[in-house]
Amino acid sequence: MSETLIPTRSTAARPLYEHVAERLRGGILSHQLAPGSWIDEQRLCGEYGISRTPLREALKVLATEGLITMKPRRGAYVTEMSARDVTDVYHLLSLLESDAAGDVARRASAEQLEELGRLHAELETAVDDRERFFRLNEAFHMRILDIADNRWRTQIVVDLRKVMKLNRHHSLFREGRLADSLAEHRAVMDALRARDAAAAEALTREHFRNGLAAATQRAPTLP
Fold first, then answer.
1. Taking the model in full, what pTM does it have?
2. Do residues 38 and 65 both lie within one domain?
3. What range(s) does the HTH gntR-type domain occupy (predicted)?
4. For residues 93 and 159, what is the distance between their CA atoms, to the nearest angstrom?
């Protein structure tokens, strides 16, 4: 994260703090900036070749997204997820995304369901490639939200999913969870194709319950 932030001609119209926020966000979500780590403003200003004003504006943006926690007299820290935080985020995602799945079952066009089917088919081929599976898994979930077409719900989910990526014990890291998650997606897809809104909602809630159980499961300790 040592490149100077110099906007190109094509992006110069954006305020500098937005470039800074984008760069910091990428570092946080990739865990280059680890959860719980202190944001060294002086070092980052030197690395980015900027003053503290755009950096602090960027930190405010990331704080509203939940990625940064501001601590009085101590500065800014990358948000660290507690067990309660993880439970709360999964609970909200379960409510919002199950609601969206029901809307899709009721209202999606045949073409939109075919598109979801193609995304799911790609997911089926990615079970042995964790990074690709993560990417396609999120694309599948977000496409359901896009088709359900409630921008307020979608915005809340986007922010919650950013925060969820801070969790060091992501549910899909657990052995066997990728295959289980895929089977759950398969069941949701079947319910969507059948236009069974109640089943789509219930299966999506179950999917998040199982994800939460995997994300909060403690690794066995050695004797």
1. 0.79
2. yes
3. 14-81
4. 10
